[in-house]
Amino acid sequence: xxxxxxxxxxxxxxxxxxxxxxxxxxxxxxxxxxxxxxxxxxxxxxxxxxxxxxxxxxxxxxxxxxxxxxxxxxxxxxxxxxxxxxxxxxxxxxxxxxxxxxxxxxxxxxxxxxxxxxxxxxxxxxxxxxxxxxxxxxxxxxxxxxxxxxxxxxxxxxxxxxxxxxxxxxxxxxxxxxxxxxxxxxxxxxxxxxxxxxxxxxxxxxxxxxxxxxxxxxxxxxxxxxxxxxxxxxxxxxxxxxxxxxxxxxxxxxxxxxxxxxxxxxxxxxxxxxxxxxxxxxxxxxxxxxxxxxxxxxxxxxxxxxxxxxxxxxxxxxxxxxxxxxxxxxxxxxxxxxx
Length: 339
Ligand SMILES: C[S@@+](CC[C@H](N)C(=O)[O-])C[C@H]1O[C@@H](n2cnc3c(N)ncnc32)[C@H](O)[C@@H]1O
Hints:
Domain DNA methylase N-4/N-6: 34-315
Helix content: 25-40%
Family: Belongs to the N(4)/N(6)-methyltransferase family.
Number of strands: 11
CATH class: Alpha Beta
Structural class: alpha/beta
Distance between the termini: 50 Å
Largest sheet: 9 strands, mixed
Bound molecules: S-adenosylmethionine
Strand content: 15-25%
Shape: globular
Radius of gyration: 20 Å
Strand order of the largest sheet: 1-2-11-10-3-4-8-7-9
GO molecular function: DNA binding; N-methyltransferase activity; site-specific DNA-methyltransferase (adenine-specific) activity
Order of helices and strands: EEHEHEEEHEHHEHEHHEHEH
Protein name: Methyltransferase
Number of domains: 1
Keywords: Methyltransferase, Transferase
């Protein structure tokens, strides 16, 4: 296997991130080495993060994006432990009048395109979680014709509902001969109440849901809430509650796309809680500023990530370092309290 081109790398006790192209890096990862992948891919050409030809957001059409994304998904299938999952945070995309060949406007089913690629590369479709978004905030941010009060009054045939996001989840089934690699994810009754399971099983997750994973039982174990307040309130996508995302501090870098769209921390934590055991490996190929890593570390998981953009990579190093310190501080607190 060829060496990936790694521009920089940083490591902590339970994490490693690489300033590298996710595809070439994943090609060098060992088989069945990841227990859960959770990440936001670039939403096709919605934002271009850098001028790099390797930047998957640097594409003209959705099909071009999927052509590149497919190479990653192929590796994700190989590196995922048999019987485990890959959860991607996506949304459908809007196109406007005159931006299409026939001058029409509507939605592009980007999430379905992602599913197509995952299925073609061997995964099965496991489930779709809808992440609720407030249409009033979307209206304030983007002013879409379909969400205007005057459209509702003038000709409601143009009205649409607000755009949710999704966590699309795909499973890599064990093939014959791989049974020995399968490892169940366990939630012992003594540790996880039925109500928590019923909550996690809901098909709609909210970014303003305050039930941070693992806060039930002994409150001192709520390491997630320590990391939650890691930095000043995040800005995120404009419609996120202040404490739900890491703060994007790239304003001083003119080359960095400011609309990073960090992955909501509580959504990521719910996925990690549901689909991994403590100590397992979480992978994000598009690490950005490190949200998935912070969520993983705060829940006692290990994290590996790749990020192409040097500014985001630098921020992710900072956040992961900070998160592991806070987790260590939490463990020390536990130890002292137990004495
Ligand atoms: C939607 S953002 C991810 C945000 C991240 N989930 C967070 O919360 O910070 C997509 C990221 O993918 C990165 N990216 C794009 N192409 C890449 C590639 N080929 N390899 C690694 N990272 C890439 C972009 O620089 C961007 O930071």
